[in-house]
Amino acid sequence: MTDRGNEAYFGQRLLRWYRKERRDLPWRRSRDPYHIWVSEIMLQQTRVDTVIPYFNRFVERYPTLRHLAEAPEEDVLKHWEGLGYYSRARNLQAAVREVVERYGGEVPRGKAEVSGLKGVGPYTAGAILSIAYDQPEPAVDGNVMRVLSRYFCLEDDIARPATRTAMEGLARSLIPEGQAADFNQALMELGAMVCTPKSPSCPSCPVGERCEGRLRGREKELPVKTKPKKARPVYRIAALIEGTGANAGRVLVCQRPETGLLARMWELPHVEVPDDKVWGRLDEAAGRLKAALAEEGIRVRVDASEEVGEAQHVFTHLVWNIKVLGAAVLDEREAAGSGYRWVGAAEFESYAWPNVFRKLLTEYFLFRQKA
DNA sequence: AAAGCGGGGCA
DNA sequence: TGCCCAGCTTT
């Protein structure tokens, strides 16, 4: 299927196209392995246009790996706010600290060493080694699997790990001598700009005339990918608790656990209820909220008639449906415990919030400001 | 192999 | 609405 002549055709046509059409992206203006690394972590499951402003802020705030290694964790999380998949931020900082301690502050050049860093999987390791150090390692992401599936008319399910492994072997065999950096980026660039998921621009494709998928009229059916399961709805009741006296103008918030969903981010205290029926009955919902807070040592009076907000937050694997009820603490000293804080409009911006709570609280503080 | 893990853009 | 995005880690 891939005789020498076709490999040369593919690589040379792709490289020529890339050197003419490549986008001017912030991380392409440097060969600093640390900058390449940061960009690749941010780009995991995240679009280029979304990443650009985050990348620029991040490298300005943490110009070198040592700056990042020495930063407070919550500072790093705050810079990641809104980007999603927050374990990436924690893993990245843990990994740069390891590079400082074990490799003298220089991103290692060995495949085993790079792959051993937290948050660095097969794709990211290949991307760092090829783009920063020009090593002939494949970097197979969703773009590359789509391009190869179409070009070679491969019907293997790209959701299967075994397919990705096979694609790595194929991609490795296609790397032109000494041009791994440009070739890998060219492959991804083609997937992003020409060989797009829907309605690919085959007429302007540099390798279209030998694309098996297109020649067989199959380009729109490829790649084959099993569908993910639908997100599961969950129902939650949150408390908006306003402070009084010294805490006037502030709201009681709490920090999420160290691991799992939205780890270490801040939110309104809330409780999950079994189903949408309980969620819809405000008196029962209020009772469950009050009981949950009592478990934390915080006694509150919840006003079931005072629904102050409602929001939906869609994750990949679940959907949060949130009702917000107004409430008041009986004794403000009870809410001084670990993980709980009174936060006002002034401090609000220095905490890291999931989007849904950032929106709810922004709305609230704006409302209070007017009142 | 399957599930957990964000958020946004686009047809 | 559903799909996909320069994926990795844990179970």
TrEMBL record:
Its EC number is 3.2.2.31. Pfam families: HHH (PF00633), HhH-GPD (PF00730), NUDIX_4 (PF14815). It catalyses: Hydrolyzes free adenine bases from 7,8-dihydro-8-oxoguanine:adenine mismatched double-stranded DNA, leaving an apurinic site. Keywords: 4Fe-4S, DNA damage, DNA repair, Glycosidase, Hydrolase, Iron, Iron-sulfur, Metal-binding. Binds 1 [4Fe-4S] cluster. Residues 42-193 form the HhH-GPD domain. InterPro entries: A/G_AdeGlyc_MutY, DNA_glycosylase, HhH-GPD_domain, HhH_base_excis_C, HhH_motif, MIG/MutY, MutY_C, NUDIX_hydrolase-like_dom_sf. It is an enzyme of class 3 (hydrolase). SMART domains: ENDO3c. Its cofactor is [4Fe-4S] cluster. GO terms for molecular function: purine-specific mismatch base pair DNA N-glycosylase activity. Adenine glycosylase active on G-A mispairs. Belongs to the Nth/MutY family. This is Adenine DNA glycosylase. It comes from Cohnella hongkongensis.
